[in-house]
Design a protein that fits this description.
Blueprint: H1 2-14, E1 28-31, E2 45-53, E3 66-78, E4 82-94, E5 97-102, E6 120-121, E7 132-133, E8 139-141, E9 150-151, E10 153-156, E11 161-171, E12 182-183, E13 194-201, E14 205-212, E15 218-227, E16 230-237, E17 244-252, E18 255-263
Parallel strand pairs: 1-3
Antiparallel strand pairs: 2-11, 3-4, 3-11, 4-5, 5-9, 6-7, 7-8, 10-11, 12-13, 13-16, 14-15, 14-17, 17-18
Length: 265
């Protein structure tokens, strides 16, 4: 019975947030949920798609608008044997047309800048570098000799999204949990007046931290918004709540992590 109660609590909390993990920077780093990369039977790689919500990228509302997106925690083989996080440049080239090409220069795999209306330029401008490419990935300035990889895009006008067909990827070294958020035990516990709840993020994300009673009722929301990577601390004031067992739940990118504590008056 207790396990069923816990499952119901997890199911309820799992529906409280939509998955959102987009950083408002350029280049933009986003985290691709490992569930999208790993089949239920535990495959280490899986061909998949990544859906870009255009409402989150104002630059993509304009012709020649462009962003650089990196899928943190992923591993993709470039140049035959070099594994780097999967990265792509997405550019709007017409009212309903988008182009996606590799986010790394084909010369020495330095990061590329987003399309500036003329070229996609390698960010490495040291002597002997500085390659440039067309919006579709063709070489327009050496030393690069090979065009950028080009990925299939599908525009959905109704949803205002673009789906990128991603090649086979792996998360980390087959251990996606290495990038999972870390939820620590609150301190002090048991709690008399207040307690500190601490967690660590490894990627920018939309986060909700809630506290529930033993029946799964949410009694407070400690944070509900976007947070950068790093450690975060929040104080729960227990002075108005009776003695008993409580739970705190961290929802990050659709995954819920839970720990419990005891209030003693």
């Amino acid at each position: 019975m207790e396990e069923l109660k816990n499952q119901s609590r997890r199911d309820f909390l799992g529906k409280t947030l939509a998955v959102a993990a987009v950083a408002a920077l350029n280049p933009i780093s986003v985290f691709l949920n490992p569930k999208e990369l790993f089949a239920s039977q535990g495959d280490q790689t899986l061909a998949t798609n990544y859906v870009v919500d255009l409402t989150k990228f104002p630059a993509l509302s304009n012709i020649n608008g462009s962003v650089a997106i990196t899928l943190k925690g992923t591993k993709y083989t470039y140049a035959g044997n070099v594994k780097l996080p999967f990265s792509f440049i997405l550019t709007k080239t017409a009212a309903t047309t988008f182009v996606a090409v590799a986010g790394y220069c084909s010369h020495e795999l330095s990061s590329n800048n987003a399309y500036d209306g003329t070229v996609i330029a390698c960010s490495n401008t040291d002597l002997g570098h500085g390659s440039q490419f067309s919006v579709t990935g063709a070489v327009v300035k050496k030393p690069a000799k090979t065009a950028l990889e080009n990925y299939v895009t599908t525009y959905n006008a109704t949803a205002n999204t673009v789906t990128i067909a991603i090649p086979k990827l792996a998360v980390g070294d087959g251990t996606p949990t290495a990038f999972a958020p870390e939820l620590f035990q609150n301190y002090p516990n048991p709690v008399k007046d207040s307690t500190t709840i601490r967690f660590k993020l490894h990627y920018y994300s939309k986060v909700t931290l809630t506290v529930t009673d033993a029946l799964g009722h949410i009694i407070t929301v400690l944070t509900d918004g976007s947070l950068p990577d790093g450690e975060h601390n929040f104080i729960f004031d227990s002075t108005i709540w009776p003695s008993g067992t409580y739970f705190y739940h961290l929802n990050v990118a659709g995954e819920v992590f839970t720990k419990q504590f005891v209030v003693v008056k």
